[in-house]
Amino acid sequence: MQKPVGAIVLFGPPGAGKGTQARVVVQRFGIPQVSTGDMIRAQVKAGTAATAAAAIMQRGELVPDEWVNQLVEERLKQPDCRRGFVLDGYPRTARQAQALQGMLEGNGLPIRTFDIRIGHHELIPRLTGRQCCPRCGAIYNVHGNPPKRPNLCDRDQTPLETRADDREEVIRERLLAYERQTRPVIEFFRQQGQPVYELDGTLPASEISGQLCRILSAA
């Protein structure tokens, strides 16, 4: 039987590279990525999300804990999460962190927490220039990592998209919301005796991935 990997919690402000690192861990350890942002956006796009929740997202604010907790709990019940999973964008509040602990009680999966640290002045250019492939999830940036052909994914030639919440005014609100509501969650885990591994978000993504995977392999 394969060794359990655990519940991998990735912290970091919007644009810190959580999604990129999540995909690396998924490939390296064979566990699923659970992205609340992707789940919420999918519901909004499909029209299954409440109108009020969609409006909250467009303003760059955090959606209600109860709704996010329910989405995550339903996802973690799936068989592919038995060995572990990568949580991308969750938990973002202390109430969500408490809910996560409740979901994991009795299943033997440890929580492994990582904090990708990077300043706001470096994040704004990253996010305003970000483009995403809706088919494969590849992420590009017109300032530092552009596609080979403008506005087309290198992998599958799908037209790239810019997220509505990557406008600068929305980005600034998202960064403020992160500092105000999410940063205290890291302290919550520390108070619970959970180790929090800090990663330098200014390093190349490959170096961050190497550090992250070494820590997980040694755990």
Task: Kindly describe this structure.
The structure is a single chain. The chain has 219 residues and is of the alpha/beta class. The chain has a domain at 6-119 and 182-218: 3-Layer(aba) Sandwich (Rossmann fold). It has helices at residues 18-29, 36-46, 51-58, 65-76, 94-104, 120-128, 168-191, 205-218; strands at 6-11, 33-35, 84-88, 111-117, 130-132, 139-141, 196-200. The strands form 2 sheets. A 5-stranded parallel beta sheet has the order 2-3-1-4-7, with helices on both faces. The protein has a two-stranded antiparallel sheet with strand order 5-6. Helix 4 (65-76) packs parallel to helix 5 and helix 6 (120-128) crosses helix 7. It is globular. The protein starts with 5 loop residues before the first strand and ends with a helix.
Task: Return the CATH class of the domain at 6-119 and 182-218.
Answer: Alpha Beta
Structural class: alpha/beta
Shape, please?
globular
Pick out the low-confidence regions.
Answer: none
Helix content class: 40-55%
Order of adjacent strands in the largest pleated sheet:
2-3-1-4-7
Query: What is the CATH fold-level name of the domain at 6-119 and 182-218?
Result: Rossmann fold
| Rg on CA atoms, Å | 17 Å
Strand content is: 5-15%
Number of strands: 7
